[in-house]
Structure formats: structure tokens, C-alpha cells
């Protein structure tokens, strides 16, 4: 059977389009779990949650940007997963999330912060893994210097470090 040029082009385009991430496609972590996402999510891998080790986070199209922060000296380089990408991977189905640190400190982060060129879940600072002592292993960081809207007390309060879990709220 031969396809018309239009149908052939449509078939090729369909093959090139990324498929939605199904629950079965979210692999189980093999290393130490750094982040657990629960709540209103479609894609899980461990007991109804989406659990991520470092290698899994590194596979989620990480980005790197440079910025200053109010907590560090000088320009810093941060590498991590865009919050928008992480929420896409877990199939977040809500308008807000609660990000919680190791010490149970929690902040609310609204969907409007899950944007391209917005917040990332950083796992590297200046090319190095972050220890708990140095705000790690995960830190929600915004590109503060690239947008004046990210230089507010509200945004600074959402910049949670020692992040270990996220609840996507109904």
C-alpha cells in the first residue's frame, strides 16, 4: 500500500511527536531517592508516588543558568530540572504544589511559576552536588537576575532548599 505524500508526511510527523509519558514509562529509581512527588499526579513509580534518584533527574532535560542569590556570594551557576518539566513528567493535575524540605519547612508554589525560563529544581551549584549543609541536595532556584519579577520577597520565600518532597495539590 502506498500513501499519498500528505498522508506520508502526517505519518512521519506523528512518529516524530513525543508520546505522553504513561505511568509505566516512569522508571523506578535505582539509587538513593532524592525527591518524592505525590498528590494530584498521573504518573507514578513507587507506591502511588513519583520517586526520583539523581540519575533520573539528570535525564529530564536539565538546564544551567547563572544568577546571584541573596543567600550566596557572587554569581552562582545552577543546574537542574525545570519545575515545568518535572510537573509535566509526573502529570501534575493541579494549580499549586507544596514543596517541603528535610526539616518539614514547606512553601506553596503556584502553577504560574511552572514556566519555561522559570524555577528549577537544582542539584548542582557551580558544577558540584550540594550537600545538606550547602542547601542540598535539591534547591528550588529562580533565575533571579534575568527577571525583576523574581526579585521579590514572595519569590525568595518559594526558593526552598533541602527539598525532598512535593505534593501536587488538588
Automatic annotation (TrEMBL):
| Keyword Signal in annotation | yes
Instruction: Cite the Oxidoreductase molybdopterin-binding domain residue spans from the record.
Output: 74-143
Q: Which SUPFAM superfamilies match?
A: Oxidoreductase molybdopterin-binding domain
Q: Does the keyword Ligase apply?
A: no
Record-linked Pfam families = Oxidored_molyb
Keyword terms, alphabetized = Signal
Gene3D superfamilies found in the cross-reference section: Oxidoreductase, molybdopterin-binding domain
Query: Which branch of life, at top level?
Result: Bacteria
Q: Where is the signal peptide?
A: 1-23
Name the UniProt record assigns to this protein: Oxidoreductase molybdopterin-binding domain-containing protein
Record organism = Salipiger mucosus DSM 16094
Amino acid at each position: 500500500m502506498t500513501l499519498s505524500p500528505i498522508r506520508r508526511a502526517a505519518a512521519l510527523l506523528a512518529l516524530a511527536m513525543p508520546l505522553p509519558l504513561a505511568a509505566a514509562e516512569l522508571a523506578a529509581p535505582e539509587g538513593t531517592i532524592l525527591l518524592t512527588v505525590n498528590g494530584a499526579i498521573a504518573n507514578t513509580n513507587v507506591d502511588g508516588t513519583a520517586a526520583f534518584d539523581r540519575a533520573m533527574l539528570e535525564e529530564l532535560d536539565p538546564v544551567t543558568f547563572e544568577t546571584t542569590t541573596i543567600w550566596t556570594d557572587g554569581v552562582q551557576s545552577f543546574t537542574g530540572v525545570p519545575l515545568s518539566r518535572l510537573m509535566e513528567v509526573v502529570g501534575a493535575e493541579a494549580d499549586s504544589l507544596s514543596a517541603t524540605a528535610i526539616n518539614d519547612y514547606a512553601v506553596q508554589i503556584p502553577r504560574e511559576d511552572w514556566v519555561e525560563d522559570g524555577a528549577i529544581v537544582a542539584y548542582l551549584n557551580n558544577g558540584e552536588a550540594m550537600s545538606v549543609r550547602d542547601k542540598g541536595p535539591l534547591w528550588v532556584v529562580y533565575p533571579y537576575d534575568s527577571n525583576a519579577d523574581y526579585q521579590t520577597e514572595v519569590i525568595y520565600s518559594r526558593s526552598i532548599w533541602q527539598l525532598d518532597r512535593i505534593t501536587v495539590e488538588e
